[in-house]
Amino acid sequence: MVRIAIVGCNGKMGYFVADAVSQRDDCVTAFGVDAFGDSKFNFDLYKSFKEVKDIPDVIIDFSNPIVLDDMLEFAVANSVPCVICTTGYSPEQIEMIKAASEKIAIFYSGNMSLGINLLIELVKKATMVLGKEFDIEIIEKHHNLKLDAPSGTALMIADSISDTLDKEPQYVYDRHSYRKKRSKNEIGIHAVRGGTIVGEHEVIFAGRDEVVTVSHQAQSKEVFAVGAVNAAVYLANQGAGMYDMSDLLSAKLG
């Protein structure tokens, strides 16, 4: 039984993680860490890691970059693996995460959905076959409150395509600002914002007289919580190092 600590348990994603854990029989929530609010759960809540006396098997973090220092200090001191789902880290904090991964197992991914990471693997394979002859376009759709565009996931997809191609492509975000023929060495990336769309990503391979499309739709944010719990159960048995969804996918595929 994997004992999981949830950082940011009083937030929306923390609630989803706690619910996802409660529906499994291979893990349990050991405690939560959240500086805001009272516990709504049947497990202990600590305001900070300085209060924590218990040692979990793994930590899942859906909180705020400000928590990183104390969390990593606790995790390294007690040899606890971390699934880091928080975004918005500074370059210095990213280096801290990498340094900590030399001592403990850290799972760090820009998108915790198992499905979107399977899409990335499928897109890599499609690029190997079609990339030299087909034009590649990425369309991402999100709710009207999302601040950044394009999404971090769209850029993850574009980077995976770029790494697969022989020649590094140009990312083109806005075609209305210039008039010229589309070059072969580019990836178009387009953002749509509207309503309550949780997240949709579509990769189009457009060739002569045929089009191949690979797409993924997230129906709710719960998919990211489920992915984080899958990662936590996987990470509990791993040695020090940096892990991501490609490692989890490889483990599931055997």
Q: Please, could you describe this protein's structure?
A:
With about 250 residues, the chain is of the alpha/beta class. About 35% of the residues lie in helices and about 25% in strands. The protein is built from seven helices and twelve strands. It has helices at about 10-20, 70-80, 90-100, 115-130, 150-165, 220-235, 245-254, and strands at about 1-5, 25-35, 45, 60, 80-85, 105-110, 135-140, 170, 185-195, 200-205, 210-220, 240-245. A seven-stranded parallel sheet has the order 3-2-1-4-5-6-12, sandwiched between helices. It has a five-stranded mixed sheet with strand order 8-9-7-10-11, with helices on one face. Strand 1, helix 1 and strand 2 (about 25-35) form a beta-alpha-beta unit. Helix 1 crosses helix 6, helix 2 packs parallel to helix 3 (about 90-100) and helix 4 runs parallel beside helix 5. The longest helix is centred in the middle third of the chain and has 17 residues, at about 115-130. The mean pLDDT is about 95.
